[in-house]
Amino acid sequence: MADIFSEFEDRLPQKIIDEIKNSLPKSASDAKVKKILEAAYEEYTIAKVSPGESVGLISAESIGEPGTQMTLNTFHFAGVAEMNVTLGLPRIIEILDGRKELDNPMMEIYLKKPYATGKKIEELRQLALQIKETKLRDISTELSINIADFTIEVKLDKDKMKGIEITNSKVTDAVSKQLKGYNIKDNKDSIILKSRSKESTFNDAYKTKEKIKDITIKGVKGISQVLPVKREDEFVIITAGSNLADVLQLEEVDAYRTTTNNIFEIEQVLGIEAARQSIVNEIFKVIESQGLNVDVRHIMLVADTMCVNGSLKGITRYGVVSEKSSVLARASFETPIKHIINAALVGEVDNLDSVVENVMINQPIPIGTGLPSLSVKQPKTAKEK
Amino acid sequence: MKKPKFKVDKHILTPKHIKISEREKLQLLEKYNITSKELPKILKTDSAIKELEAKPGDVIKIIRKSPTAGVSLFYRMVSDV
Predict the structure, then answer these.
(1) Host domain of residue A289
(2) N or C: which terminal CB in chain B sees fewer CB atoms within 10 Å?
(3) A52 lies in a domain?
(4) Residue A281 with chain B: CB contacts under 8 Å
């Protein structure tokens, strides 16, 4: 029986084969199974999108129409102890534009066994503190410059430091690592920085004073808030701020499930395919949370388009649209004059291969029946060979 | 970018990437009646294919988990830039 199924593996999707396999009665004979599969294959072929169908247009409509409902439905959850999340249309726009700076970057950090079960609450708390970024400005009460010798004195907030378990030596270590050219003296309640170069000016000291405020003393850079949350039967740390590359380096973190909502970071750390999957997940999450119903295939098409060139491209004039080969198609989106002038300067040729440019010049557009070469095999031209 | 200690392809978001042979590549191009330039691209520097040691021009087969088809195959050509 296994042979019959393997015969259909190329022709039917795995999911349909599995479904048939699971719902077959044990008594089904081989011939009957084959008949079922043949019938399923026939139905499947009919249900498939025909070559030349304008799937992009259908996707645009299918995502756009619920999008109009979404604008009205966006509201804020006031007073809920969860963190700020961008939801609704703003979030969809953020994803589709391929923005690098998000309004609310967030991470979901899954943990390895002993931490995830939550039996050791104390350790979980420690870990959360270890992830949260503490900057020098958070643990200092006053930064001042001594005008006589241009030294910088940083008064430390001892109570705060005790609370998050930072010692003086940790502070001096972190500062000396991230600030070159300064001698650091530990004065118990404060640390004093003195420039090594002899020609230092007040201006230099002032600049340094501003700079050291942002030195990371403890934690992962960019993570501004941590919140351990119980999800089903394990603890997950949700963070505001995102730094996937550094968080995945941590011992206690389950690196294989931890994610972020910053798709660019995912592309950098996990590759373009992970980014595509994450676009689908993120858009679907928003649409689902609004109680709307959009078929996931439309979202997959958008995600595929954004990732087709190996790097993430937003659906903007700088991203996907700039990749179009036709001048007229690019000009029809945004900033037409710029595109037409640039094309004229370099003598660009428009082959009129796509839809928009043919609409412009009143010609039949190559979709549906206007596009036979997708379903009928045409021999390659000499040039292509 | 620091090199991650973990295996990128084991992450839940990353599907399996396989480098296909030259023969399989020709079969693929034949099947869809396309040239390799028409395939979607994947960067040579992409973290998911670092261990495959793929050269520009190689084709990577990606086995995606799909909510609609169960498993779906996707192909990308390794590109330089």
Answers:
(1) 60-102+261-311
(2) N
(3) no
(4) 13
